[in-house]
Specification:
The chain is of the alpha/beta class. The chain has one domain. Helices cover about 25% and strands about 30% of the residues. It is built from three helices and six strands, in the order ββββββααα. Strands 1, 2, 3, 4, 5 and 6 form a six-stranded mixed beta sheet that branches. The longest helix is centred in the C-terminal third of the chain and has 14 residues. Bound molecules: zinc ion. The site of zinc ion has 8 residues, from loops.
Length: about 140
């Protein structure tokens, strides 16, 4: 997975969006060029609770020795989380009432956050949170 910051979300049909990347990415493992090989749908819940489909690109590393596939995730999303980043941020900063989700999701997000928030980081804004998620993800490549 690769997190991208520069992109346009284009609505391709009702409740379906396509991510148009504005970044030239290289393989995070070997730094070789990546080439698109298709796409897949990622179901996402917006902060309102609305369920949408986001079509993300699958890219393959052109280095035959590496040849890894990476998914290109827009930074409005959080790896392995269903809700968009702003919803997750609202929950962890105590503004659960702004998010259209159930109690179970809120509990799960708090539990997840408790497990990863002990890296000594200071999160004061959504921008800090975005950077934290981005850096955290790089640890698991
Ligand atoms: Zn590679």
């Amino acid at each position: 997975m690769i997190i991208i910051k520069k992109y346009i979300l284009k609505e391709t049909s009702k409740e379906e969006y396509k991510v148009l990347s504005r970044e030239e990415k290289v393989c995070p493992i070997c730094k070789s060029k990546l080439t698109p090989i298709g796409s897949r749908i990622r179901i996402t819940y917006l902060i309102s609770g609305k369920r949408v489909s986001v079509r993300i690109r699958r890219l393959r590393c052109t280095n035959k020795k590496c040849y890894k596939i990476h998914h290109e995730l827009p930074d409005m999303l959080v790896p392995f989380k269903r809700y968009e980043l702003s919803a997750i941020y609202s929950i962890i900063s105590g503004k659960e009432n702004q998010v259209g989700c159930d109690e179970k999701t809120i509990r799960e997000v708090h539990r997840w956050w408790k497990g990863i928030s002990n890296y000594g980081q200071t999160i004061k804004t959504i921008k800090d949170f975005k950077e934290f998620i981005h850096d955290l993800y790089l640890l698991f490549l």
